[in-house]
Fold this protein.
Amino acid sequence: MKSGYQGQREFRHGRMPQLGVVLVNLGTPEFPTADAVRRYLGEFLSDPRVVEIPRLVWKIILHGIILRVRPKKSAHAYASVWTDAGSPLRAFSEALTVKVQEELEHLARGPVSVVLAMRYGEPAIDKVLMKLQEQGAERLLILPLYPQYSGATTGSVADAVFASLGRWRWVPELRFMSAYHDDPRYIQAVADSIRAHREAHGGGDKLLISFHGMPKATLKAGDPYYCHCHKTARLIAEELGLAEQHWEMAFQSRFGRATWLQPYVAKRLEELPAEGVKHLTVVCPGFASDCLETLEEIAMQGRDSFLQAGGERLDYIPALNDAAAHAGLQAERILQHAAGWPETSADFDRGRLEAELTKSRTLAQAAGAAG
């Protein structure tokens, strides 16, 4: 009888087990073209975690209107931030993954493989997990690159991971990391990036701390995202020693007609010049990597809106991206959450483990010969 569960295609008894660490970011179109954006948006906006309205109604809206109109406009926006390395979000995420791997090679005792996956698009979570299985990962640690928890982001990553592992024959040990919105290492890294920018370019009249928006209904439904964003902003301001009048927070990227979390960044950018703010600095600590929403929406469109409203200068402070401080804090978080596993244990003895694996290989070969 053929089983529906996925085994390892080239399973070998006695191979060295390892810890697989998966950094997960949102995703990006493969190219800045209407067709590529349509495929990406089709997957992204079909996720019931992202759009929580009746499926049949939303399917008609999505395929009848949005995917017919939005891809061309969004492709133009993506093209404005595209680089020689491709999508900024993917390029920065890949560079961060490499640096976290390098950090763990010095800190971990046993073999650890750090890989990148995207919730939507490529590299897909399911494919990345299967590759780790084939490499011998018996323990998995999932690290969503979303500092503030939301069901639409971190929750959706969990959905994809559990759906994938639910088809495996040999289900690995699994640990799932969640929000790090108030982790002192994260707050320090963001604050230090703001300090460095102010030293090089000046501080401006006010700091605007911008987070991606969410429908207000998610707050009423019990999603902690709104509270996480407020705590992050407050801790950053406290770390910088900012007086209340020298900073504020708001939410960007509103989509559709529903009421979203407020205040809206777009509205505040038009209002601030009339309130005496001529030089505005913006930071977006909800984004681990720079992407369309930071580079185009804030640094380009946002700047234009602010200047047209009477502002004189808007500075955007880059995300942590692949900065050494970012790689370091994520490596430390990984070690913290992987505590007790062999690869991070001070008792890890590679020589003894290899001897045990040799015995396992011998027994497996003998069983195969006898069978």
Notes: The chain has two domains: 18-180+324-347, 184-317. The chain has a mean pLDDT of 93. The radius of gyration is 23 Å.
